[in-house]
Amino acid sequence: MTVKQLSMPELVDACLELAVPGVGLWREPVAAYGVRATAKLVRDAGLAVTTLCRGGFLTATDPDGRAAALDDNRRAVEEAAALGTDTLVLVCGGLPAGSRDLRGARERIADALAELGPYAESHGVRLAIEALHPMYAADRCVVSTLAQALDLAERFPAHQVGVTVDTYHVWWDDSAPRQIARAGAGGRIHAFQLADWTTPLPAGVLDGRGQIGDGAIDMREWKGYVDAAGYTGPIEVELFNEGLWARDGRQVLAETAARFAEHVNPHGSAVGGPGDAR
Amino acid sequence: MTVKQLSMPELVDACLELAVPGVGLWREPVAAYGVRATAKLVRDAGLAVTTLCRGGFLTATDPDGRAAALDDNRRAVEEAAALGTDTLVLVCGGLPAGSRDLRGARERIADALAELGPYAESHGVRLAIEALHPMYAADRCVVSTLAQALDLAERFPAHQVGVTVDTYHVWWDDSAPRQIARAGAGGRIHAFQLADWTTPLPAGVLDGRGQIGDGAIDMREWKGYVDAAGYTGPIEVELFNEGLWARDGRQVLAETAARFAEHVNPHGSAVGGPGDAR
């Protein structure tokens, strides 16, 4: 998503050129290029698919809406498996129109996970609940903190359900470091994503994620927390930013790799040494 | 602020007409009308000043900036006392430019409160730390949860420092109800404010607070939490909303009183019975 202006082959070429060892993919561009074609493209390039984004939106109250959401999530699991990633990131969904019941919405997510967890496991895929910033609680994700995400995940086996730690969503939360430790102890850090916090936020607050190093978040501090929690998986940089999308995608990817080297991994290679990707 | 399009005398008239028993004032319109003139106006009308907004912005690192902030907060305390309110709401401040140190900023707030608390007490004024929504953590307030606000407040006597509970800022937080209970047990709920959460958020996310009943927040639920915590003080409706500001202020105030009756206090009078204002 950081460089959605690139076609799938351009993305793969740019990753190879910059020695970026893996890429997190989103379902829409994968569908546009074709799941099998994408899988072959990345496999032939030796590029890891770190995660697939995203499943979720599991808070509907009406039976048809719930059935459609479960169907869609099963397809997402299948796509993840086809792409060769073991992790499907979940954005769990906001409040249904007119509802004010956060607790009820969170319980419906748990109900859905009970169905989707075993299905994912049977495909070799883990679900990774992403705690989204509280500013998305109404319309996008009623899971607003890592504590809430873990409260949900821990009802299920860790190889079925874990969490996504994204700096953009949790950086303000002084309890997040101990929740990362809790997640690590349970083997539930299934994804780790970086974006920086820059202000002012744009209207709708979706596409204002800052380039690494441009904002208020100490990336090295958060990498330290997941390191200390035993996380050895990939680190994704996921920026939704109109300004970055308007630029040349290869330049943006090169800049992102350079920022990663400067702000996250100063003593490693440009995009992380061994252990930073699988 | 909900009806900032009204002049101070228009505001007082409109409150009397609607039997609104009290009003929370902001420093800028008070200064424009004059502190003494405002104090006389509301006193002669028999209208309570529920709180003064706002002090705060206590996170500067440079000595001049810190000294200026403390001076300004002492003036705010004096203004609150002159207006006859016992509560000064604090918006504590964001990160200084270029800083990524949330913890350090929070500690500087504590340092400032150690100076301002006794000064406020000597004027019969209590400081009320407002936990602001995490989307303001970088540029407005590094105190993002009631738990953090109470961690700060509890370093000082309750008659010096408490908290402001504002539904807009805390509604997403599943730990807020128990923090309200904690605040009530300590006699530290110094202000209670209502605004509804509506989406999409506007650019800059400052002026998108929804009219009561228009959004995702169950107002009665939150009133229940402060009631259960023993809170008997006033309930303020504080809406920053370009749409409301563009309308006739008296109409907006009447609508707000009606929404309050419908969504907050269905069995009381239009704007709350005895005990809802002091």
UniProtKB/TrEMBL annotation, chains A, B:
The keyword Isomerase applies. This is Sugar phosphate isomerase/epimerase. The keyword rRNA processing does not apply. Residues 16-255 form the Xylose isomerase-like TIM barrel domain. It comes from Streptomyces adustus. SUPFAM superfamilies: Xylose isomerase-like. GO terms for molecular function: isomerase activity. It holds the Pfam family AP_endonuc_2. Keywords: Isomerase.
